[in-house]
Every structure is written in C-alpha cells, then in structure tokens.
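User: Hey, quick favor. My workstation is busy. Could you predict this chain's structure for me?
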Amino acid sequence: MITQPGATFTVNLQVENVTDLFSAPVRLKFDPNVVRLSEVTRGSLLTADGGEVLFTRNILNDTGDASIVLSRMPGSPGVSGSGSLLTLTFQVVGKGVTAITAPQLSFQDSRASTIVTASPQVSVSIE
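Assistant: No problem, here it is.
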C-alpha cells in the first residue's frame, strides 16, 4: 500500500470460510513514528445472524500497540462464512516503509478451541 504524509488510510481484516467463529482477540503492532491508529470499527461477520457482540479496544499509539477483542455473547453459537471482522483507520505521521502486523492471531470457536491461527501483516509505504 502506498500513501502520502498526513493522509489517512484503512486496513480491513477479512476472514474467509470460517466455521463456528465465536471469539476473535486481535493484537496489533505498528511503528508509532510512522502511523497512528485513530479508529477501530467492528465488521459485520460476527453479527451476520443478528446476534450481539462484545467489542473492546485499547489503542496505545505511544508504543505502537493495540488490543481488540470481539466475542459473541455467552450461550450464543459461533458464526460461519466469510466477511469483515475489523476496519482499522490509520493516520500517517511520518515517512518511510513500515509494517502493520497482527502477530499470533488466534480465533476460537464456541467450544473455546482454536480454529484459526495466522500472523497477517500489511506493508505501508509513505512517499
């Protein structure tokens, strides 16, 4: 992804072909000298059946960390399918090339078993 100094940009975290997704804790790492996380918006995947979702976020722009938790309500089933989990809005505050990563991403099903493990990342170039 290429962007300009002072610009904002979004990153969408999409999930493909998941079965019984119940909980999605996400930890983000980014370079706070290059970008700042200004907004986290819940996607539609976990509410696709009309169910409620617990949604918390803790953004620490000084250290380049964020913790986000999405979880279905206790007693409700998980969801299956594909769709948007999160939309992240970043503000460019510096120059260079940087990565936004979600190290050790691990999603759970309604039985608290791990169903997805990944370490997605996006590279951003500010010119």
